Amino acid sequence: KQAMAETGKIAIARVMIRSKSVLACLRGWEKLLVMETMFFPDEIRRPELLSDQFKAVELHPNEVNMANSLIGNLSAPFNPEKYTNEYRSKLMEMIQGKIAGEEVAIPTAPETAKVVDLMEALKASLQATTEQKETPKKRRKKKTG
Fold it and tell me: Is 11 among the domain residues?
């Protein structure tokens, strides 16, 4: 790490992640050696090669306004503690169950919902987030005497 910092160089590596060869960059950052995954050249598409595959879409100002409102309603400061690694939690739960001698059931994949009309889905999301912000919190009645 120190030699890389002194020479201003990074290292390019090939690593295995989930049985797949991945291109990576190793670089020094503060007191750490950091690895970042990269794309192979054949995985990168130049936008001009894709432009004929996509049609230009005219957005109605109402659609943009609704999207902006939804973003505003859902925006909050980033709190990393709010997010958990659900895969790891479920895996650890299964491991602990196996250690305790329990029969471990393999969970089934949840059924995915099909969104037919994106505009209707946007309206529903906007309405749900607006109602959520407008609903006052219920206060508990204080016991007297």
Answer: yes
